[in-house]
Specification:
The chain is of the alpha+beta class and 160 residues long. It contains five helices and five strands; from the N terminus they run βααβββαβαα. It has one domain: Aminopeptidase (3-Layer(aba) Sandwich), CATH 3.40.630.30. 25% of the residues lie in helices and 21% in strands.
């Protein structure tokens, strides 16, 4: 018998070791993320854990001002638990979260789960020509081995 799936936003329940192991070695988007960086990200995010009994099997993280904007990040279900509706239940909990209601924009990036997210109302960016980002895909690999991150270029102030 399979234990019922439970979703929780209690940060004390998160298995940070498991989350780090998955994100740093199995994800395509956070490979090599240092544990300290992940811990800081979790501390400043609204996190959702998916559990069967006491075992964590999935995770999602939202960064938000809880009034106008949110970004959904780091969504995963462990491979041995996929295909059982866990991702859908996790996303439903995110969508139903009271602190995330009435947002003007709820964003995410995905390379391969468009159909899953579309079922929850997500769509391609309406006006991609207005979107910009600062993207540094090598930031974690430069930090590995005790290296310091390369700082962003200094901006000149007007009049300098």
């Amino acid at each position: 018998m399979t234990t019922a799936l439970r979703i929780s936003t209690d940060p004390t329940e998160l298995d940070v070791t498991l989350i780090h192991a998955f994100l740093s070695t199995q994800s395509s988007w956070a490979r090599g993320i240092p544990l300290a960086t992940l811990q800081r990200a979790i501390a400043h995010s609204l996190c959702f854990g998916a559990y069967r009994g006491r075992q964590q099997i999935g995770f999602a993280r939202v960064v938000s001002d809880r009034a106008t904007f949110a970004q959904l990040l780091d969504v995963f279900v462990l491979p041995e638990h996929r295909g059982q509706g866990c991702a859908r239940a996790l996303l439903q909990a995110v969508i139903d979260e009271p602190d995330l209601q009435g947002l003007r924009r709820f964003a995410l990036n995905t390379s391969d789960a468009h159909a899953l997210y579309a079922a929850f109302g997500f769509a391609r960016v309406q006006r991609p020509e207005t979107a910009m980002e600062r993207f540094d895909p090598a930031v974690y690999t430069r930090r590995s081995g005790g290296g310091k991150p390369i700082p962003p270029p200094q901006r000149r102030r007007s009049g300098q």
